[in-house]
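For the sake of transparency, this paper describes our internal protein records without simplification. The record that follows is passed on verbatim for readers who wish to inspect the format:
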Amino acid sequence: MAVGRDSRPSTLDSRLLLSIAAALLAASAAAQEAQFFAAPSEKTRVVFRWDALARYDNIDHLHFRTTIERLRLEVRPELDLELSDRFKIGVRAVGDLGTDHTEDNARNFDNYRSRGAAIERYYVEAKPGQFVVRAGAFGMPLVASEMLWDRDIQTPGAAVAWEVPAGAASTLTIAGAGFYGPQREGDQTRIGVGQLVFRSGDPSRLAIEAAGSYWHFQPDDLKPVYFRQNYTEISGGQRVLVSRFHIVDAFARLRFSVGKVPVSVGVDGIVNLGVRDEANHDKSAFEGTASVGRLGNPGDWRVFYIFQYVERDAVLGAYNTDDWWFHSWHRGSRVGLGYTILPQVFVQTTVVFQKRLDLRTTLNRVVVDLVKMF
């Protein structure tokens, strides 16, 4: 859509993407009807699960800000009705309690709310044949790093994925998705995504996952507090984004083992084809990751490192991770060490060194998490 000087949304691209998704869904229903409506291989069951986070967060060396020190507690219970191994209905709630106030979230660039409770996830998931279809509000179903999308932000809309064999121990997944208004406070942003994913190999030896995606964002009624570090201008008496966000994303990850220790190495590159005017030279982003070990069973450990370099309008700052203080216009490193103390319960310490690209000050952030996994 045209954002900035022409702030009226054009829905042509989003309608086209949603039409494609609808066609895929209709085709899957027709082609796989016999399989989808076959007798379920398992009895209907109700599954309850939950996860929780207790976090200590300290941010220091902020530009023109005092040190921030806060505590956060979050609990997310989920109830799933599994009618068969091919059809599921789920709902999840979230409750947050923090020592800071919800009114502080905007100036702290947070995606979550410090205090409150809500139903954040409600969805149906069907698997007709080689297709996976989701509708409602659910977790991000596509391959994307948190440089592009925060896993804590749910995606209201629909997604279809079709997986086909691509040789020995290899698959190719063709996916499309459309989302509407993922953030809060009246957000009506439309997001359309098309993606190809290639997977091959055995993670215990060597496995590769590579994805190419096109993301089309049409911001509409997105509050200025979510513009974060993106370029803005005044148009019609309102602050609006300068650039459009037509993003090409290329992602690759290798998984292998050293002895019995799992290792993962990944890279993610982004180019925004919609930059305009003063943002023309601020359109690229890169992330490199490395992880050694695993979490889950007592005694399990994991160490990881993440490097990011994100130019100012490479990504739309409303939707990527808030584990980094700045959402774009930065470079920095995150280093973390986690250790499992009980089944599905681990403690993790993360240190962040982040520098906005126009400043000399390096921000320091220390996060200590106690996590109960699903």
About this structure: DSSP finds two helices and 18 strands in the chain. The two ends are 38 Å apart (CA to CA). The helical segments are 12-31, 33-36. The domain at 12-372 is CATH 2.40.160.10 (Porin).
